[in-house]
Amino acid sequence: MSELSGLYALWEREFRVYLRERSRIVSTVISPLLWLFVFGGGFGAQFSVGNVDYQAFLYPGIIAMTMIFSSIFYGANVVWDKRLDFLKEVLVAPINRSTAFFGKVLGGATDCLIQATIIVILAPLLGVSFGFGFALAYLVIFVMLVGLVSVGLIIGAWMESPEGFSLLSGFVTFPLFFFSGALFPPGNLPSWLSVITFANPLTYGVDALRGATLGIWNFNVLIDFAVLVAFAAVTMVLGTLSFRRMRL
Fold it and tell me: Is residue 53 helix, strand or coil?
């Protein structure tokens, strides 16, 4: 088996498993919709951000939220693959562990891309038009997914039980989301909150999505993209090392 065919086989397996779990697709989309229409609709009736309705302002943040939660919790599959001995079969196959990791990343990114697309389809309901920003938005989404899925796989590689994974992933996902500027503009924040928000790489992803959909930028698009690429590269390197040192 070549490395390329091994990569494809792993991607296909992850994609087929995802398509069989329709309840997972529905459940991962319901929560973002509640945030968007209940939370966004409620606050949107009270105030706006600049000249933009709050619900529309929240929309890119909800796309980011969908990616953060679905991508990192995808890492739980590694824990279950260990318990079912599927991962042991993968790791004894004639492919190196880096290929196994990349196959998992592509599979997880594909699954989460479908979920993000469901939220993207709702854009016209909120009066949001992607226009020429559509390609940029999907490029940003893909790079973010690669980094976030890698984070989930890193956690999964070091955890031995689903309970341990849920506990640790919760400590990671909620700060990443709440300090990403998904719910509020990152400008004019208290100094302590500003430091944490600007240190979060996902802040730049949300900013890029908000720029692509609403034309609202807090940073230069090149800075946003450079931070996201660096985030994805670092997490992929750490993920590869974690898979190489993973014990079954």
Answer: strand
Contact between residue 224 and residue 205 where contact means Cβ atoms under 8 Å apart:
yes
The four Cα atoms 89, 95, 96, 101 give a dihedral, to 10 degrees, of -70
The DSSP H or E segment spanning 242 is helix 221-245
Classify 200 as helix, strand or coil. coil
C-alpha span between 2 and 143 (Å, rounded) = 26
User: How big is the CA angle at 193 (ends 136 and 203), to the nearest 5 degrees?
Assistant: 10
> Strand, helix or coil at 190?
coil
pTM (two decimals): 0.91
Where do we find the tokens 């890698």?
A: 150
DSSP line for 128-162: ---TTHHHHHHHHHHHHHHHHHHHHHHHHHH-SSH
* CB crowding 173-189: b at 16 or more within 10 Å, else e: beebbbbbbbbbebeeb
Residue with tokens 């590694």: 78
Q: Name the phi and psi angles at 53, rounded to 5.
A: -55, 140
Residue-wise pLDDT for 160-207, tens only, equals 888 888 889 888 999 999 999 999 888 778 899 999 999 999 999 999
Q: What CA–CA distance (Å, rounded) separates 238 from 154?
A: 7
* Residue 199 exposed, middle or buried by CB count within 10 Å (0-12, 13-18, 19+): exposed
CA 205 to chain centre: 10
CB-based contacts of 57: which residues, under 8 Å, 6+ apart?
Answer: 48, 49, 185, 210, 214, 216
